[in-house]
Amino acid sequence: MGEELPFRRYVSANVVALAPSGVALAILYWMGALAGHHALAAFVGIAVVTAILVHRYLHSLSRFARFVSELSGEQEPVMPRLSFAPATEELATAAATLAAGWRRQRASIDNLAASAQAIVDGLPDPLIAVDRQRRIVRSNRAAVALLGPLLPDRDLSTGLRQPELLAAIDSLLATADGNYVGPTHVAVDLVLSGVSERDVIAHARRLPRAAADGSLALVVLHDTTALRRAERMRADFVANASHELKTPIAGIMGFIETLRGPARDDAVARERFLGIMAEQADRMRRLVDDLLMLSRIEQHEHARPEAPVDVRRVLEGVRDLLQLKASSRKVAIELSIDPGLPQAIGDHDELTVVFQNLVDNAVKYAKPATTVKVAARLVGAERLAIAVSDEGDGIPAAHLPRLTERFYRVDNARSRLLGGTGLGLAIVKHVVNRHRGRLDIQSTPGKGSVFTVTLPAVAS
Ligand SMILES: Nc1ncnc2c1ncn2[C@@H]1O[C@H](COP(=O)(O)OP(=O)(O)O)[C@@H](O)[C@H]1O
Ligand SMILES: [Mg+2]
Q: Which-ligand-closest: CA of 331?
């Protein structure tokens, strides 16, 4: 019984409890039914027992009070023994039940709040909620990743400094006594400077009413950098393709003029010019063929071809096709295919295009009287590696990362002279991607290059 009862309460409780028996004894004494010393002795006896009972009762009550106050704490308290205050025991049970229900509800509210934050954090786009005073209420992980730490209760301008956006949000938040009329949504184009510059569209939306946490407007940032880059690439591509076509067209037009005018009756010149015109037309045909091929592959780049392909047949076909061109440059093509090589998973025609391009490049850029080697072998359990190596000029390392871009060439003039379109490796890259394969390029300037294609194989 550690705790002390307040003395005054103890005394007054005793007085109240003793009052009826005291009054009864006084009446009996007054009526002469009891002798004075008898009445006094009886009163002392009653007082002693009352004092003990009152003490215990008050003690139980104070334990009950402590128990109830502890119910609102973090942990559920142990129910005390309240034997001397029977009614309090029922009260305590009821209070405990109430507290348990409340605790459950609080847990589910905490849960809801946590899952709301988890959902906000899970959004891929940066999101910031601000209150009526434009202070940050909450932000998600993407926002912190893009903008750095965003401290709650600080003005939004501590995270996003773009005056245009801040002004737009101010106009959203400026509400006339709740009678808000005006747009509830604004979008602002931003450029975020940082390690790398990012193009972003900020969508700011005003909530119909302030949320429980005080949020009144949501700002969502949508990164459009990739989109812009794709737009630029498309524009560049169209410009490049047009430029590639313009040269042969200009050439053909020039020869037509000459044949109509000065060379009208010159049979020798006519023959020669027609030959050049045919060559230019052929170059345009190749370019258009490559462009069509590229766009066809791009259209279904995400669908993976799934037929079993005999790699030996593909490579032998490519060799036969390029044999003539190779021997005219005194270059030999040598195939070495592991016996028992499993089939690749893919598309026969597309893989033919891949190796045709790689072997064609190897033959074109090889030094005369060297050998182009094509080696196919199994790597790991279910992948094939086909390496095309040449003894040629090689490619300086600085060019390697961009080699598979459309129209990217190490030496423009030389590529054109050799009849190249600059699209071959772009086609190779796309086809290999579509096959869930890989293209690795190794090159030593002055020595030669190795282009290795890795493809999934049919499990054997
Ligand atoms: N085997 C190789 N050896 C040296 N350079 C190569 C080789 N293959 C490709 N290249 C370089 O990569 C560029 C792009 O190749 P590609 O896309 O096939 O275009 P091209 O039409 O010029 O063959 C070529 O212009 C050339 O500069
Ligand atoms: Mg090529």
A: 1
Closest CA to 339 of 384, 387, 376, 295: 376
Q: Indicate which atom in ligand 1 lies nearest the CA of residue 420.
A: 21
What percent of the residues of the chain are helix, what percent strand, and what percent coil, each to the nearest 5? 55, 20, 30
Which atom of ligand 1 lies nearest, measured to the CA of 365?
A: 3
Average pLDDT over all residues of the chain: 90
Domain 123-223 shares a fold with domain 307-456: no
* Pocket flag, ligand 1, residue 357 (CB < 6 Å): yes
pTM: 0.66
Helix axes 36-71, 7-30, angle to 10 degrees: 150
403 within ligand 1 shell (Cβ under 6 A): yes
Question: What pLDDT is stored for residue 179 in this prediction?
Answer: 63
Architecture of domain 229-299: Orthogonal Bundle (1.10)
| Residue bearing the CA closest to ligand 1, atom 24 | 409
Give me 119's structure tokens.
């959902």
Q: Do residues 355 and 408 make contact, with C-beta atoms less than 8 angstroms apart?
A: no
What's the CA gap between 359 and 368, in Å, rounded?
Answer: 15
The pLDDT of residue 2 is 46
Alpha carbon nearest to ligand 1 atom 21, residue: 420
For residue 356, the ligand closest to its alpha carbon is 2
pLDDT digits (tens, 9 = 90+) for 228-239: 999 998 999 999
Decide whether any atom of ligand 1 lies within 6 Å of the 448 Cβ.
Answer: no
Q: CA dihedral defined by 12, 18, 19, 25, rounded to 10 degrees?
A: -150
For the chain, how big is the Rg over CA atoms in Å? 45
Q: What is the CATH number of domain 307-456?
A: 3.30.565.10
Residue 137 CB coordination number (10 Å)? 19
The Å distance, Cα 424 to ligand 1 centre, comes to 8
User: CB of 201 within 8 A of CB of 189?
Assistant: yes
CA 361 / ligand 1 centre spacing (Å): 6
The CATH label, of 3.30.429.10, 2.40.10.220, 3.30.450.20, 3.40.190.10, for the domain at 123-223 is: 3.30.450.20
The SS3 call for residue 379 is strand
Tell me the ligand closest to 428's alpha carbon: 1
CA 119 from centre of chain: 13
Instruction: Give me the residue spans of the domains in the chain.
Output: 7-100, 123-223, 229-299, 307-456
pLDDT digits (tens, 9 = 90+) for 371-388: 999 999 999 889 999 999
Q: Which residues have their alpha-adjacent CB atom under 5 A from ion ligand 2? A: 361, 424
